[in-house]
Amino acid sequence: MNNQYVGKVTIGEIITNIILVLLVVFTVFPIIFMLVASFMDAKQILAMPFNWIPSSKYFTSSTRTFFTNFIKAVRGNNNNNIFFTAMINSLIVAITCSVTTVFFSALCGYGLAKFHFRGRNLVFMSIMSTMMIPFEAIMIPLYMVTRSVGLMNTLPGLIVPFAISAFGVFQMRQYLLTFPSEYLDAARVDGLGEFSIFARIVFPNSTPVIATLGILSFRNQWDNLLWPMLCAQAERLKTLPLYISSFAEEKQTDEGALMACALLASIPMFILFFTLSKYFLGGAAVYESRKG
Known about the structure:
With 292 residues, this protein is mainly α. The protein folds into two domains: 2-74, no CATH class; 83-291, MetI-like fold (Orthogonal Bundle), CATH 1.10.3720. The protein is built from 17 helices and no strands. It has helices at residues 2-7, 11-37, 42-45, 57-60, 63-66, 68-75, 83-114, 120-129, 135-148, 155-159, 166-176, 181-189, 194-202, 207-222, 226-231, 240-248, 255-291. α6 (68-75) packs across α17 (255-291) and α7 (83-114) packs across α11 (166-176). The protein is globular and about 70 Å long. The model is unreliable at 1-6 and 284-292 (pLDDT under 50).
């Protein structure tokens, strides 16, 4: 039986598997490099050829020496000790933007998917057209508006411009187009209002797309460097991308501390993904099954 199965494996499947393995290696390689380099000094990191095993001194010396790069990462390149402040700022901004993006995108997507009104397609295409405009094109006008309303150097100034996204509206609408309208009609017959239907039926049963959109929104804000660089010039409002970039601004960059800081900044993203991975990976399958 096993021999028959092996005989059915085609050359195309073998090539596909090889390509997939190479893509996995290519994807994981930077993460492994970051992990290994976080326990090395700058001389080891820049050595050619690169030695993938840290120097033995890190394993035979004290615990303080073993984690010296992480201590430098937390203290900062000028010993300002704002790493945890920057992490809290990033968490507040990323979580708030994720929650607002999911909620408003779901509400807007529900209206565009399940309500028929004049100009519905025009509204949807107008929202989609904003995806064609790069952020760099609206960055300066957005900065001027933020400054004029007094949101510079504030957390709301980092959050409000990203409270909803056109991509989120598109994703929620496409998903809710496949949501059975019979459930909604039955709820209306039972006397539920539209917002109650949304809150009690639609939203709780959209977990896969909500998790997917939440992870993507969180990641976008967690990695956002350009807008905080413009809007948050006060040190107390620095986010992690700004904090990490400060290591690269030195005349002589400490690559080991930079790698350690990047590793610490990656931990919340890994935790979020692996916590919600079953929903994130299952979202496409649910969508395809409904579509079929």
